[in-house]
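Design a sequence for this backbone.
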């Protein structure tokens, strides 16, 4: 069960963030409103939410998940794969220092975005992507072993981050689409197959028995409800324009 979340307010400069989505530039005013709605959804799941100030120096910094992985026993400051985002780790480090957790770091030449990391109980799946390299994943593995956790790697073929394509919903249920539906490393899970035309909704977020689902993906929403979960739809259309999803917008612990 999670008790807390940390989010970072989107900055005006988010309109210049990294994107491959080809959905146009985000509307900053609408993004602000959607971010507030996202925070409300986190609170509905019982989380106390810490809101960090925006930072105009880093257009993508609202996607706070990528710069830190918080486990029950430690916090790991990452080394983002996009060079323009590496300075984001300075501010998140200050926030993490206030937690009563040991702090570890991914060092050069390792790169790692925590959007590539999926926790399943005491095991962590690491996606090898354009943002997370084998050195970063290897460093992560050593850190996790130190705290009694295990990890394994999955090489990505077509998605930006591992959690772009899969989301663990607890109770052995895994939301997945595309290349992950027949992946041998995931065969132990009960796969909830997302239709290709709703692939964006594969990034949904389990929080304390509820599941946040992006608004506008009715088939995925109904499938998750049919699996026994209460869902909360959240409109994140402006963050989708920057390749961001629901999990990217918070640290949950």
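Sequence:
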């Amino acid at each position: 069960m999670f008790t807390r979340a940390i989010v970072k307010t989107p900055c005006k400069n988010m309109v210049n963030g990294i994107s491959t989505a080809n959905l146009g530039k985000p509307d900053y005013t609408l993004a602000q409103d959607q971010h507030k709605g996202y925070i409300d959804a986190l609170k509905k799941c019982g989380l106390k939410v810490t809101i960090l100030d925006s930072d105009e120096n880093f257009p993508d910094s609202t996607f706070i998940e990528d710069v830190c992985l918080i486990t029950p026993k430690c916090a790991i400051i990452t080394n983002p794969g996009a060079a323009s985002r590496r300075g984001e780790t300075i501010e998140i480090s200050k926030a993490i220092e206030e937690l009563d957790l040991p702090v570890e770091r991914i060092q050069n030449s390792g790169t790692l975005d925590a959007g590539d990391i999926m926790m399943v109980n005491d095991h962590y799946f690491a996606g090898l992507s354009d943002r997370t390299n084998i050195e970063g994943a290897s460093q992560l593995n050593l850190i996790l072993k130190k705290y009694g956790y295990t990890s394994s790697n999955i090489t990505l073929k077509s998605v930006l981050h591992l959690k772009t394509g899969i989301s663990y919903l607890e109770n052995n249920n895994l939301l997945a689409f595309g290349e992950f539906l027949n992946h041998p490393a995931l065969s132990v899970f009960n796969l909830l197959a997302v239709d290709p035309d709703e692939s964006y909704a594969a990034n949904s977020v389990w929080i304390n028995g509820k599941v946040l689902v992006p608004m506008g993906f009715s088939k995925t929403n109904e499938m998750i409800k049919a699996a026994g979960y209460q869902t909360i739809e959240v409109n994140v259309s402006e963050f989708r324009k920057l390749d961001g999803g629901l999990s990217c917008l918070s640290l949950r612990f």
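Helices lie at 28-44, 88-96, 134-146, 162-165, 218-226, 237-240.
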